[in-house]
Design a protein that fits this description.
Blueprint: H1 28-39, H2 42-47, H3 50-65, E1 70-74, H4 77-93, E2 100-104, H5 122-130, E3 138-142, H6 149-161, E4 164-169, E5 181-184, H7 199-218, H8 235-249, H9 253-262, H10 267-276, H11 280-289, H12 294-302
């Protein structure tokens, strides 16, 4: 038997789920029905914490507008989901890679393989923030139990720097933690006791996707519900830019292609050009003084 210290975590995700007892006796289809029934409770639970999530979004937007960054911190499944969300924002919204930074306990190797004891490494958690964050940043920790040492140490280090902090957890009884806002999604006991890659992980995925998308919207990376800041890196995405311009302007495919060509492939510039009729140079200048917000650029041009 291992001599490593054992810690028993008292969190809802660690408790036994009465709805899934004897699930191993069920036929395959019934197993899946039971699991699906548990999964359907997660979006409802996320819906109950939207005010707290909105506060986290506003803190992140304030950090980015002040020249800071947003940091995700997690271990295990939480860390992997954080890395995934941060990576997907670059091609989707064409954001600078350092806008959203993910710190995973155990480092890059932990994305594919479990790194033993990484989540208990408080010094690594604190160091990840001390060496990479500033007081104007926003740090969002993810921990299903709300008690992961790596994450809490990172949040504590962030607060010591003067940064705003948030915690995403599935433990509504987490108590006093170093977070300005706690987003406690009450997902209850897991279908398989303690397996937080299930409902808690799904909740974290929903929270992260909504968080980062709302931040990008507030930062002007969309126009209406269109991805006007996307990076067209392949033929499919180049085709999508034409579709986006057509959807936003009702212009012909030929006119949209010509506008993109005149704007050297810059989708926002082509969009403002098509919506206002000004040349691409004036469109680009209006976007420059509007921090890339299309609607603000349109208002700038309307006043001239």
């Amino acid at each position: 038997m291992s001599r490593e210290r054992a810690v028993r975590v008292d969190a809802p995700t660690e408790r036994n789920n009465p709805r899934t007892r004897d699930i191993d006796l069920l036929p395959t289809l019934d197993i899946l029905h039971v699991l699906n029934g548990e999964d359907r409770t997660v979006p409802v639970a996320v819906g109950r914490v939207l005010p707290e999530l909105a506060s986290a979004v506003d803190m992140a937007v304030a950090a980015l507008r002040a020249g800071g960054r947003v940091h995700y911190v997690g271990a295990g499944t939480s860390g992997r989901l954080a890395v995934l969300d941060a990576a997907e924002l670059v091609p989707t919204f064409n954001v600078p890679p350092n806008w959203i930074v993910a710190h995973q306990a155990g480092g890059p190797d932990a994305f594919r393989h479990a790194v033993e004891n990484a989540e208990d490494d408080t010094e690594s958690g604190a160091t990840a923030i001390r060496e990479n964050a500033t007081g104007v940043d926003f740090v969002l920790g993810l921990a299903a139990s709300g008690r992961t040492p790596f994450v809490l140490a990172a949040l504590d280090a962030a607060q010591r720097l003067g940064a705003r902090t948030g915690l995403v957890t599935s433990n509504p009884d987490v108590g006093d933690v170093p977070a300005d806002v706690v987003i406690a999604v009450d997902t209850g006991p897991e279908p398989i006791t303690g397996s937080t890659r299930m409902k808690a992980g799904t909740a974290q995925k929903l929270v992260l996707t909504s968080f980062s998308t709302a931040v990008m919207i507030r930062m002007g990376r969309t126009y209406s519900n269109l991805m006007v800041s996307m990076l067209a890196t392949n033929a499919k995405l180049r085709g999508r830019t034409i579709s986006i311009l057509q959807e936003a302007t009702n212009a012909s495919e030929e006119a949209c292609a010509a506008a993109l060509n005149a704007a050297d492939g810059d989708l926002k510039t082509a969009l403002v050009h098509l919506l206002t009729g000004v040349d691409v140079e004036r469109a680009a200048a209006a976007l420059a003084v509007s921090d890339g917000h299309v609607r603000d650029a349109l208002q700038v041009l309307a006043k001239r």
